[in-house]
Amino acid sequence: MVFSIPAVRRGVSLGAFAVALGSVGAAASIDQALAASAATQDTVHVDIPAGSLASVLRQFATATGTKLEYSSPTVQGLTSPGLHGNFSVQEGFSHALRNHGLTVQQGHPGYFTVVKASSAIILSPVRVRGTASQQAKTMGEGLAGQKETATGPVKGYVAHLSASGTKTETPLIETPQSISVVPRDLISDIGAQSLGQALVYSAGVQTQPYGFDPRYDQPLIRGFSASQYGNYRDGMRFANGSFAYFRNEPYEAERIEVFRGPTSVLYGSNNPGGLTNVVSKLPVDTPIHEVELTLGNYNRYQGEFDFGGAVDHGHDVLYRLTGLFRDSDTQVHNTKDNRIAVAPSMTFHITPRTTLTVLGEYQKNLTSMWPYYLYMPGKGLTHIRVGDPAYDAFRQQQWYFGYKLEHKVSDLVTLRQNFRYGHAYLDGEFEDSYALLGPNLTRYAGQWQEGLTSLNIDTQAQFKFRTGPVQHTILFGVDYFQQHLNSKMGEGWGSTLNLLNPVYSTSGVSIIQTATDVYQVIDQVGIYAQEQLSWKHWHLLLGGREDIVGTSSKNLLANNATTRTSPNAFTGRASLLYLFDNGIAPYFSYSTSFMPTSGVSSPATGSRPFDPTKGHQYEAGLKYQPHGLDSYITADFFDLHQTNVLTTDPANTLYNIQNGRVRSRGAEVEAVANLGFGLQAIGSYTYVDILNTQSTTAPHKIPVGVPRNQASLFLNYTFPSHFVPGLGVGGGVRFLDKTWANVANTQRNDALTVFDVMIHKDVGPVRLQLNVNNIANRRVAVCNTGNCTWSLGRVVLGSVRVRW
């Protein structure tokens, strides 16, 4: 939507307004009435085509961020010529309802009900002089905080807009592909300390496929990894190396979004399962002052702060500063989970049509490089670490800076450019098991040093216009991604561990010799176009993209021998959705993906560089957003295929060939709701049937770590103020089906069911909160083709948060 918020002018006198209030018996103060009325006088530019009255009302309510209630018989069979131009909330509803003997009546600010004109009492409009930002200061709430945007705050658990699936601000109910949004309130309520923990109640995502691992977030989406090519921040991909990954701090997130299915048509190379996109907290007009202290088990001490607001009186310059400090142990004995993270940002309203946001982050982490335990055939997973706490460290620093520039040429044309430049450096050391000789475990030692530099530029032109009854949103874009990686690994002999009397030390580690030293460069240019058409109830989405990729890998230990590839690809998407007046929206989509594959075939086959893997998916779904209830329900079925997958070359097992195929079919259901009366909920169910349909090493086997069934439910209830003021309780249950632990499907990881509880108490500006996740401390062994650890056990977090 294209919003225009002009200065508001003075109309009737305060005395006249007071008389009007008295005539209807209102008890609110004049200041409250002024704030509510001013909110309804802000104008919005809309271009809503003619159609059923219910459809026009629904689209206008979405554009203005208001809630509208009506009974179906009241509007059934009625039509509207549409809305075109600038309208206040009251004007827009009145214009749509004219000639039908209907009008709207406002209850709470932002909530309207359609009634017969004779039953409504119409108050004269109140007009207040001053700019929108001045009113925001008077009301204590910025206008940006009153209307949801695709990247801004969400009230409660239910988001209505997203940009992850289209790169345009689009209602979720009109987006014909499966997307989940985890808002800030939900992240806080469940006490999430990592990206994976924030997504445990979302459909389609396996958040701990390889057990507890403090180094990375490693989600699987529809059975495919999203930890490398699918790791996004503010709509741009984070680079990754072998061990160096850009990390996401959930406290810095305004929302976390999961875009399921092939994403290449907008974002380029990726696995076909989907991606996660962390949307950063950015400057807002509303003043923000928040400080939080969190204590937890495993000696966790954590402090967070979040400050923001306007720098100048005209609210043309805004700022945000978010930070976290943590000193903590983990459930892996003698390992840390320390973090320092600071994320500053500033927004400059250069002109009424031009906005520049500059943002960045610095993060430093210290944790375990090798959090694995010894697995004994016939006995199972032990509590004996295969590594050595004295020689086990994962030290990483990362930083990035960038900008988001937007210029509205007119109400029809918007130009955007997003830029980010960042660097991550990893220094790690570990010991791992080599052989078991009686009671003695011999081990080898390793060191990794990786320097990772990345550059992203995404330039877009958006055109929004009508041709007759058809609304068009056309997007053209060019994005560029570059990654430089220097990866150096050394090996040596580690110490021997006596299992009957394990003693950990570094005395047995030999001199580390460099084994690999590789310098890799990836350049990717993507040119994409997308058309969103809306005609009456129909919503059609078409998109295509051409990617030109160049990779080079230089072996610094072999006379700089260089391997180059150019895995170019075209991907596309076509989707159709029909939105009924009652809020039900069935849809169907077809989309494709590609991902470059490193390496070459055997010399006997010409040492040819591998082609990219290809993916395609059919998805059919149903979305439902009932009127009068702040909720959003989605259900979908998908059939996803990946080809050109690497498998072992039977003629030379030291090399691979590309005849592998993977098929993933399944269904997902997710529901989120702000149910009123203090109750909020999120629930999901996922069924995935994934199989290697063609492979030389694991034909007709299920990939490691993918559960067939997942289910979860979380409820949060705040008691009425007259009962126990400020008290709330919450709880959740999560089920994860058993998974295969090895490629041959001969070893299983057990199923897991855990329960979470939460209680919070608000005392003025202070919130006291206690989270106990996995309250029964239920843990199972999780193995991944030889590496084994335990699932995440009980996590206890007590926090004190102050906002002013």
Give the structure's gist in a few sentences.
The protein is mainly beta and 804 residues long. The chain has a 22-stranded antiparallel beta barrel. A five-stranded mixed β-sheet has the order 11-17-18-15-16. The N terminus is likely disordered.
Q: Could you explain the architecture of this structure?
A:
The protein is built from 9 helices and 48 strands. With 804 residues, it is mainly beta. It has 3 domains: 144 residues, 3-Layer(bab) Sandwich (Phage tail protein beta-alpha-beta fold), CATH 3.55.50; 118 residues, TonB-dependent receptor, plug domain (Ferric Hydroxamate Uptake Protein, Chain A, domain 1, Beta Complex), CATH 2.170.130.10; 504 residues, Beta Barrel (Maltoporin, Chain A). The strands form 10 sheets. It has a 22-stranded antiparallel barrel. It has a 5-stranded mixed sheet with strand order 11-17-18-15-16. Helix 3 packs antiparallel against helix 5. The longest helix has 12 residues. 44% of the residues are buried. The N terminus is likely disordered.
Main attributes?
Ferric Hydroxamate Uptake Protein, Chain A, domain 1, 804 residues, globular, 9 helices, 3 domains, five-stranded mixed β-sheet, Phage tail protein beta-alpha-beta fold, single chain, mainly beta, 22-stranded antiparallel barrel, Maltoporin, Chain A
